[in-house]
Each structure stands twice: as C-alpha cells, then as structure tokens.
Specification:
This protein is mostly helical. 80% of the residues lie in helices and 0% in strands.
Length: 288
C-alpha cells in the first residue's frame, strides 16, 4: 500500500528531490552572476537564473530517484525513500522531472543565445549522471562537472560568454562536489561492492577514498584561489575562502576520526561552502 508522506504530497516531492540540497549548486550560480556583473544584474536575470538552477536540480534528482528505484529498494540505507515506499509514484517523479527540464529550457531561452545553445549539453549531463556508477568509479567526477556547471552558468547568463574565471570556478566547484561525493559514497561501500556498483571507495577502499577526497578538496581550493585572482576578489571574498578551507579541514577530520560513521556529518558540513562563498562574494561585490 502506498504511504502518504507526512506533510502531504508537496512535502513528499520536496523530499524526493532533496530540495535543501539545491544549496550546493544555487549559491555558486549566484556567485558567477555577481562576479560577471560586478553588481546585482537586475531582477529579471536573477529570477531566470534561479528558475534554471531549481529546475535543473529538481529534474536531475527526480530522474535519479526513478532510475535508481530498484537499487534504492535493495539498500537498507535508501529503502525508505519515496519511490521504494510508494510515497511518490515513479510516473509522478517523471512528471516532476519534465517540469524541471521545462523550467530550465524556459530560463535558457529567456537569457541569451549561449545559454540556449548549451541546453542540450546540460540536459545530457543531468540525465546521464545516474547511470555513471553502473559503469565507472569516476562517477563522482561526472557529478562534479554537472553541478559545477552552475557557477559557469551564472556567469554566462549575465555575459553570454565564457571567461578564464568561469573555467576556474567550474573546476573549483566540480572538484569540491566530487570530493564530498566520494566521502558520501563511504556510506554505501559494502552495498555497492556486493551488488556490483562502482565508486572510488569500492575501487580504492576506505583509506584510498579518503586520500582522493582530500586531494580533490585541496585542488578545489587552489582553483577557487585562481578564480579569486582572475575575478579580482577583494579581502572579504578571500576571507570566505579561508573559512571554506576550515570547512574542508573539519569535514575530513570527522571522517578521519570515525570513518564512514561520520561521513554523513561531513557531507552535511559541505552545505556551508556555498553559503559562505555566496555571502563573502556578495559582500565583496556590493560593498566596493
């Protein structure tokens, strides 16, 4: 029998797409927007960027849940998710994904020719990511490239073009996402190995995964610093980067202390990275 999610259908849909995790990509779309414009670019651009990011995230997560429904049902950690329990039907999730892609397309058409041209690329990355772990342990990098595009997207939405700082920001966010996704994958290392899924922990073990995640986050911070130089960060934005380094260190200290038991807390700590960088860059840009 289907289970009605607490709080009604809307709450079930929001849990399905992990709406709170929009905080990973959306702040960096705004960071790219602010750096490209050197100020607030206007409400129209701001709202279209927001619609694009929320639509893309919702579409990707809804598709992910449909594609992974059978795997989720077999995994004790994920068996309580909305589709395996019947709280949300697979067809409802597909409708939600279609609505998300429609929102992304509308925003792309409203912004500029380059955002329109890049729509098929964005849809391909968002759609294919859930399959990556079935074939390669580099699935974390695929996720990083997909989410990291948000930073580049914010910049392109304003200028209609790429710039050196755009690439540096994209790389920084991609490495950050890939690093903490490796940490998150520690939670499913045994299950993934048993059912034949691929991940860095499955390929390199717990300790190898920790080293790779640390390396990804060191490289991420270096790319953030490069973006800071190219985009002309001021002292407040640089202070934000120092705080981000502290968040990285805290997350890895948690995993070093208790391994997979603290992987979820380390994952949640990364929610602060986007918020800190957005606050720092916004203050830096708007107070100049």
């Amino acid at each position: 029998m289907a289970v009605t999610p607490a709080g009604g259908r809307l709450a079930g849909y929001l849990r399905l797409v992990r709406f709170q995790h929009t905080l990973f990509a959306l702040p960096f779309a705004y960071v790219g927007m602010l750096l490209a414009a050197g100020a607030l670019p206007g409400w129209s651009t701001f709202l279209w960027i927001t619609l694009a990011m929320v639509g893309a995230r919702s579409a990707s997560m809804a598709l992910n849940r449909v594609i992974d429904a059978r795997i989720d049902a077999r995994n004790p950690r994920t068996a309580g998710r909305e589709i395996p329990t019947g709280a949300v039907k697979a067809r409802e999730a597909l409708v939600l994904a279609a609505a998300g892609f429609l929102a992304l397309a509308l925003a792309g058409w409203a912004l500029n020719p380059l955002t329109v041209a890049l729509l098929p690329v964005a849809v391909a990355f968002l759609t294919l990511y859930p399959y990556a772990k079935r074939f390669t342990w580099t699935c974390h990098a695929w996720l990083g490239l997909t989410v990291g595009a948000a930073a580049a997207g914010g910049w392109i939405a304003v200028t209609g073009a790429f710039a050196p700082a755009t690439w540096a920001l994209w790389a920084a966010v991609a490495l950050w996402i890939a690093g903490f996704d490796v940490i998150y994958a520690l939670l499913d290392e045994d299950f993934d190995r048993r059912v034949g899924l691929h991940s860095v922990p499955v390929r390199f073990g717990t300790q190898g995964a920790r080293v790779i995640a640390i390396g990804a986050h060191v490289a991420s911070w270096v790319c953030f610093a490069l973006a800071a130089i190219l985009a002309g960060f001021g002292p407040i934005a640089w202070l934000g980067l120092i705080v981000v380094a502290g968040v990285f260190a805290y997350a890895h200290a948690l995993v070093a202390r208790r391994g997979a038991d603290d992987a979820l807390r380390a994952f949640d700590a990364n929610l602060w990275v986007g918020a800190v960088m957005l606050a720092a860059v916004a203050a830096d840009v708007l107070l100049r």
